[in-house]
Amino acid sequence: MPEPRDRASRKADLIAALTAAAADVWVATASSEGVPHLVPLSLAWIDDRAVIALDVASLTARNLAASGTARLGVGPTRDVALLDVALERSVPVDDDPAIGAAYAAQADWDPRGVDGYVYLVLRPTRIQAWRESNELTGRVLMRDGSWLV
Amino acid sequence: MPEPRDRASRKADLIAALTAAAADVWVATASSEGVPHLVPLSLAWIDDRAVIALDVASLTARNLAASGTARLGVGPTRDVALLDVALERSVPVDDDPAIGAAYAAQADWDPRGVDGYVYLVLRPTRIQAWRESNELTGRVLMRDGSWLV
Lengths: 149, 149
Known about the structure:
The structure is a homodimer.
Chain A: H1 7-18, E1 24-30, E2 36-42, E3 44-46, E4 49-55, H2 59-67, E5 69-74, E6 80-92, H3 97-106, E7 117-130, E8 140-143, E9 146-147
Antiparallel strand pairs in A: 1-2, 1-5, 3-4, 4-7, 5-6, 6-7, 7-8, 8-9
């Protein structure tokens, strides 16, 4: 097992993962009845926000609209980051050229022009990152929306 | 993009992933208030059941005890399987030698003897598997607990 990283290294590694071309993220949401949902989606990291693009009628979009919250999993399971996020805004894909351009620049597809699709702009509130068990200590990188490092 | 696989190939690939040494799984659960939770955990695949081992006091275990349901994500995000599962039983780690041995044989750790840990035996009810967009058709491999292939 490699030596544990400090928080600054974990943040740098996480930002690299979040801004990588064709990055993906696991998006966990829940219905108001407490039924969990989970899907992988393309991710763009724009101005310290996680941005996903999806059909406004999808279960993930409906759960997020109702609850305002999701939990994102990034990276392979042994080099993981978990982001608790709050829905900041929902933007039809042709309504915000800046987001549209930034999303298309990072993702490997471009949802602009796709009927019924929206960008969901997700604001992280808590972020944890660790690789193996020796990194469980010090895994909280953001709390209450503020970076700890 | 490679040619889409048929259902039989997807099932074979999925079983290989589920039975691989040191397999991991993303476990999405939800509280009764609809707050999503997501963690990566080690997985064992025993008698057509997904078995995870965790602290009975963890949020994932408490959510599963309350709701009886979870959604599991397996594989990298571009070679994914999603398993909707029902909690079949919860077994203290020293109470079932057969599960204990099978779990330890597949996972890269052995929870036996760890105070407060349980095996959660999860029965799949619905399974989907796809790689890229050309595999979205035919992605359902199990429905209502029965393999379609």
